[in-house]
Amino acid sequence: MRAPVPRLEVAGIDSLILRLFDSIDEGNMPWLLAASQRLHESFGAALIDLVPSYTTLLLHYDIQRIGAPQARELIAQAFADLQPASRSGGGCHHLPTWYDRSVGPELPLLARRSGLGEAELIRRHSGHEYQVFALGFAPGFAFMGLVEEALATPRLSTPRKRIAPGSVGIAERQTAVYPVVSPGGWNLLGRCPSKLFDRAIEGYSLLQPGDRVRFEPIDHAEFIRLGGDDSPLETSP
């Protein structure tokens, strides 16, 4: 694959969106990580923030240090002879997950839609290694993918007002864990006892773009032993 040529879009007086790809693909991330590293090196102290997503990088720079023309020059330099980063560059996380209807009310729905049955759906969801593409929506909320097409399903037509921390869900071909209490419309399959948002760790989020994640099925007793909250959700949004 040839190195992507970023298309620059103005996001503000001191911000640019670098659009590298047009579609979501697991092969995008090595290029996004490599570009992030180069941009950090090129901008140095003039870089305020760099936010990766599925297909873009949002670059925020200090206009008191450099102007827009120089920022574009530094971007061009960063992408000169760019090579993809190693896929093993991020960390690998194993998230214990209790798959159960009481905390994953859409488990039977997704099993029926896929025609797989609940046990096979759980096996397939937990049998794949997912890539963290981006953080957003809520502190520590990691958008991961890609879920195999047989498990993909649209968001709920009416979001729930309250989702419990640790809830594991699917939306289209994405999967995620709700790190904090929040509203949400993802299809819930179970619950994870791991703490994903923590002010005591660097970056506050256990998961970072470029990391890889596997969900490991556990039973109820192990879930409780690990500090999980088994309070059931309402079955309707």
Summarize the structure.
The protein is of the alpha+beta class and 237 residues long. Helices cover 22% and strands 29% of the residues.
What does the model show?
With 237 residues, the chain is of the alpha+beta class. It has two domains: 82 residues, Gyrase A, domain 2; 136 residues, Beta Barrel (Cyclophilin), CATH 2.40.100.10. 22% of the residues lie in helices and 29% in strands. The chain has a seven-stranded mixed beta barrel with strand order 5-12-9-10-7-6-13. A four-stranded antiparallel beta sheet has the order 1-2-4-3, with helices on one face. The termini are far apart.
Helices, by number, come to 5
CATH topology term of the largest domain: Cyclophilin
Number of domains: 2
Provide the residue-averaged pLDDT: 92
Radius of gyration: 19 Å
Overall SS class: alpha+beta
Q: What is the strand content?
A: 25-35%
Low-confidence stretches: none
CATH architecture designation of the largest domain: Beta Barrel
What string, H for helix and E for strand, traces the elements in order? EEHEEHEHHEEEEEEEEH
Number of strands: 13
User: So what's the overall shape?
Assistant: elongated
Helical fraction equals: 10-25%
Largest sheet: 7 strands, mixed, barrel
